[in-house]
Design goal:
- It is a single chain.
- The chain has 2 domains: 101 residues, Enolase-like, N-terminal domain (Enolase-like, domain 1); 259 residues, TIM Barrel (Alpha-Beta Barrel), CATH 3.20.20.
- Helix content is 36%, strand content 19%.
- The chain is built from 13 helices and 16 strands.
- The strands form 3 sheets. The chain has an 8-stranded parallel β-barrel, surrounded by 4 helices.
- Helix 3 crosses helix 10, helix 5 packs across helix 6 and helix 6 packs parallel to helix 7.
- It is globular, with a radius of gyration of 20 Å.
- The structure holds D-gluconic acid (GCO) and magnesium ion.
- The site of magnesium ion has 5 residues, from loops.
- The site of D-gluconic acid has 10 residues, from loops.
- Its EC number is 4.2.1.8.
Amino acid sequence: MSTIERARVVITCPGRNFVTLIIETSDGVRGVGDATLNGRELAVASYLQDHVIPCLIGRDPHRIEDIWQFLYRGAYWRRGPVTMSAIAAVDMALWDIKGKVAGLPLYQLLGGASRQGVMVYGHANGSTVAETVEAALEYKTQGYKAIRLQSGVPGLASTYGVSKDRYFYEPADADLPTENVWSTEKYLRSVPDLFAAARDALSWDVHLLHDVHHRLTPIEAARLGKDLEPYRPFWMEDAVVADNQESFRLVRQHTTTPLAVGEIFNSIWDAKLLIQEQLIDYIRATAVHAGGITHLRRIAAFADMFNVRTGCHGATDLSPISMAAALHFDLSVPNFGIQEYMRHTEETDAVFPHAYTFANGAMHPGEALGLGVDVNEELAARYEYKRAYLPVNRLEDGTMYNW
Ligand code: GCO
Ligand code: MG
């Protein structure tokens, strides 16, 4: 019987921090899993090194479900982003190993392709409406069928989703958290103008998306959803904080703008009510922060019963290993909706060589065995971990707010 012989954690910072778990079997097969939790990377690294790896050695790597249950139930302390990211890394690495041993790309083990490719959305942003629309036009020229629009808000010095470098937005930008200033009134005035200008310039043959990033109350979100209805957005994301899932009832009652949520969810329990009451249209949980491919499939299967489709988180703080995992999942899952795609930098792509490709607005995980992605450890070792925090938000009068 093949056993897990060795496992180690690689921390690297090719422009931003990534944590990777490598598992090696007694047969010499190697699997990789992403364990990156933006701004809290070392907590997951320690959880893996100090508490998970000792339990893995000697186990049968093919018993993916049993190992998942062992790590989830066996910890006694359930859920939470640190635990679930660590479990996810193990799960991804084991699926990678299983694919390699089977001689198949992972999507074949998940039931095979349900579609030719996976529609992705790119991020258009700019400090003004005109700049954002110009960036969106570029994405359209590059073949994107779906584009997220984020623009600077007049009167605010900086806003979520707007970068200095248009293509590479990395909000975890400082050794200690940067403080941003937020005004809901200014923001709410600006978004409908952005969508009006975008529809004018881009026409109707492209999907438009927007991320509110948890900044509205339910009634404010209801109003924004209504204001955007004439422009038919594909979705309004993270309209309100979802700690209280019931908040979405109020938003839902007032607008037909589709709702997406879940990038910070780490288990099915974060979304149960949202899904079963059909309060959302897209669930954004993704492999790395929601317990791996094993748990993500469970969330998607539950969502499918209630007409909720998937829309996996795919920001650049998720490593190319997560991107590969998401693409295999997306290609196979029946209720796929869309996949977020922010390009990684060349430095990151070099550390994580991968088989996935982009063409005509869609991505494909490729035909390499397993996940089809690896970590170049020698190169990774050249980029030392650098502490970096996400920003925090304060209202104009200094009150702490959601970022
Ligand atoms: C998105 C997300 C990201 C997050 C980031 C935090 O929709 O892509 O909101 O931009 O802010 O992943 O780590
Ligand atoms: Mg988001």
